[in-house]
Specification:
By secondary structure, this protein is an alpha/beta fold. It has 16 helices and 13 strands. Strand 8, helix 13 and strand 9 (289-293) form a beta-alpha-beta unit.
């Protein structure tokens, strides 16, 4: 019987295949928002970025702010701060713009899925197939794309083609081959049902792409924010958006998979989703190994000074108890030969190994495409 490897993928796994980065999505929003001009020189989205400079450039933070603005009349927790700046007409425009941006984003992901770089996708497929030689694979992804379902269409999502979500099928299956699109998928399509307003179905990308969220209804969260009824989750306050089908069941199943897995591989995840971080940190890590792949400059310079750590490594250290003060790092080259210690100048670093109690976590900083060449090293480490 093979051991169970849980693979968590985020944007860093999809960007090499042509899907947009956070910066590209922000640029897409700027382009879409030109249809909502405030003057000859600016539009509503650009003006909001100017008003909230600390969130500018991060589309998820901007969507969160827009949720608050459009929810002012219903008791948003930021009502007193925002009410003076946004009259009712402008609040309504912000709400409409948000729906327009989300519609455009969903369609953009659908279009990218139809034009995946085939050679790079094949490299990704070979990488996963190589891991499958040694492990049973299950996936949790924060992405909306279809790359996992293309490689493993038989993996369990809780859906059958053109049918609504079946929680029993997801939660009761004994087959350890799951694909959990935690924040939704471009295959999700909201269709009207007799007993309720709608249910999410799994449909072809071409059919899903026809959705327009401009006229969709909203539901109020316990923070007095209005959640637009759309088939995916975006922006801040994600956990409050997940108390509906299938997202709540996905959250529960993710916790189960993290505890059942023998090994964990994390690809391109920024550790920015607190609900997922909590599930990871609460998982039983006894005898588990974790391999993390990301595209980063080595974050510490020439020392292990905590002040030099970036947000990513801080979030990582809070999630998997990565000791930032005494990391006990061993740097190695591709031949698994130690080349330097933590106090020397750092050159040609391939990956680091950090001991965490009886567990080990290895971080590869050169990105997914470079990691393809060390798949045998990854398997060796996992065993």
């Amino acid at each position: 019987m093979k051991e169970k490897l849980l693979i968590i993928t985020a944007s860093g796994a999809s960007i090499p295949l042509g899907f947009p980065s956070i910066k590209k999505i922000d640029e897409l929003f700027c382009e879409t928002a030109k249809m909502s001009p405030l003057s000859k020189n600016t539009n509503l989205y650009e003006e909001l970025k100017r008003m909230f400079p600390t969130s500018a450039g991060n589309y998820e933070k901007m969507l969160y702010i827009m949720r608050h603005i459009s929810s002012i009349s219903y008791g948003s927790t930021l009502r007193d701060i925002l009410q003076e700046k946004f009259d009712e007409d402008l609040r309504n425009r912000v709400g409409l713009l948000r729906a327009e941006l989300l519609t455009g984003l969903f369609k953009h992901f659908c279009e990218k899925a139809n034009s995946i770089d085939n050679p790079k996708f094949n490299d990704f497929k070979v990488f996963l197939n190589s891991l499958e030689e040694c492990f049973d694979l299950s996936f949790i992804t924060t992405n909306h794309d279809n790359i996992i379902s293309l490689v493993y269409p038989e993996h369990i999502t809780g859906f059958d083609i053109n049918k609504p979500f079946d929680a029993k099928r997801l939660l009761d299956s004994k087959n350890w081959r799951f694909n959990i699109p935690l924040h939704g998928s471009i295959h999700f399509n909201m269709k009207p049902e007799q007993k309720c307003l709608y249910k999410i179905h799994w449909t072809s990308i071409e059919e899903s792409k026809q959705q327009n969220f401009m006229g969709h209804s909203s539901e109020r969260t316990d923070q007095y924010l209005w959640r637009l009824n759309i088939p995916f989750i975006e922006g801040g306050d994600k956990l409050n958006q997940m108390f509906c089908e299938p997202f709540f069941d996905y959250l529960y199943k993710s916790r189960e998979l993290l505890n059942e897995s023998n090994r964990i591989l994390i690809i391109g995840y920024g550790f920015g989703d607190m609900h997922l971080n909590k599930l990871i940190s609460d998982a039983s890590f006894e005898n588990k190994k974790i391999f993390i792949i990301d595209k980063k400059d080595y974050p510490y310079g020439n020392s292990c000074d905590y002040e030099k750590y970036d947000d990513w490594i801080r979030a990582l250290s809070r999630t998997i108890t990565y000791n930032v003060y005494e990391p006990r790092v061993i740097f190695k080259d591709k031949q698994d030969t130690p080349i330097i210690d933590a106090n020397q100048n750092i050159t040609n670093v391939e990956y680091s190994e950090c001991c965490i109690g009886s567990n080990k976590t290895r971080i590869f900083y050169n990105g997914l495409e470079e990691a393809y060449s060390i798949v045998d090293e990854i398997k060796k480490f996992m065993f």
